[in-house]
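Limitations

Structures in this collection are predictions, not experimental determinations, and the ligand pose is part of the prediction. Treat each record accordingly. The example that follows, with uridine-diphosphate-N-acetylglucosamine as the small molecule, is included so readers can see exactly what is and is not provided: the inputs are given verbatim, and the output is the predicted complex.
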Amino acid sequence: VNNFYITGGRRLEGVVNISGSKNAVLPILAATILADTTCFLDNVPDLLDVEVMKNVLLLLGAKIEVGGNSLSIKTDEIVIPKISEELAQKMRASNLVMGPLLAKHGSVKVPYPGGCSIGNRPMDIHIKGLSALGARFTEKSGGYIEARADALHGAKIHLDFPSVGATENIMMAASIAQGTTVIFNAAREPEINDLQNFLNAMGADIQGAGTDIIIINGVKRLKGCRHSVIPDRIEAGTFMAAAAITGGRILLKNTKAQHLESFIAKLEETGVDVKIKEGEIEVIGRNELAPVDFTTMPYPGFPTDLQAPMMSLLAIAQGTSIIKETIFEKRYQHVGELVRMGANIKVEDRIAVIKGVKRLSGARVAATDLRAGAALVLAGLAAEGCTVVEETLHIHRGYEKFVEKIKALGGAIEEEAY
Ligand code: UD1
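Predicted complex:
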């Protein structure tokens, strides 16, 4: 296990290349199960979560070849629709193989998902949706979800909440079901568009991604294709926050500003200058930050994944900010750690009140989940003195070459085993 050792106070300046999106590539990897021939993926980020999903596919019988950030995946020999408990516990996203396995192989058995410890992560919306397509779930003890399906058929599905994972699972399963499926109240995240583009390139007939109604006309079979994964908007937002919190200046390349509009609007409210060009975003920090209020919401609202990084920034703003987290109930685990660094933050239920302090001071803190970890690194970069971030495994789940990228921008950060 490694710790990050950060000496704060340096402005981050320079150019950073944004990697492919973690949340886009995970469902796309799962969707390769549906293909009859080889899939080729480009701009695949080298992350722990991607490694786990690759292992899930290998375990199922897939053949994978890796060359840098490109992959080829052959899934036509998959026979055992089962995933080891150990693997699935590591990552909630392995539940994304449920839809494809049911549609292509007629049965699935997966353990209840692990992943970040950011609250209850029930599966009811996934189960309801796949049941509407004809899957039969058997509730078994022992923490497994088990289902069978002879043939899936189209259905009208109203989601209780625009769940990202449930929308993706239903899209994948419905793509080779018989007839038409309509998903109402679908998630509208850019990762859903990327999945639609990938599935359509495989021969699927899907439209509506990016709106709250998605229409899937089932086709008989899907073939392999070549696809390049969209840039990671959360990684981009994290580096934008890094420029802001250190009063630095960072040019992000390989990014899409249109995926970050709600975040950019809030960042600009803090007084930071954001310049948008084709495929690039430049953030020019300043010495004083204004407080802002925001509520996390499904896309296109403020993304819950950038709540923690934004909170680090507001911890040193000149005034009081109020955050409301509506997506995940336990997503304030970074608060206690930020307080150890001198922040003044109070949490009551889903509301966090942040009274900006002059400066944060270095401390020994723990990354309790992926985005909390990123937030603590940002706080460390701006704090006085040395910050040690423990449990950095969580950060490696979702950020490619995080330490190298920060170092290249002039940040004083080292990763060392202890
Ligand atoms: C995805 C992202 C994650 C992001 C989240 C919200 C991936 C791999 N992960 O997670 O980074 O933070 O979207 O933008 O893409 N819920 C239910 N029942 C269900 C499913 C979800 O109650 O069956 C609840 C969850 O507990 C949570 C909320 O709905 O409170 C949002 O979950 P969902 O949109 O499904 O998030 P994920 O797909 O897990």
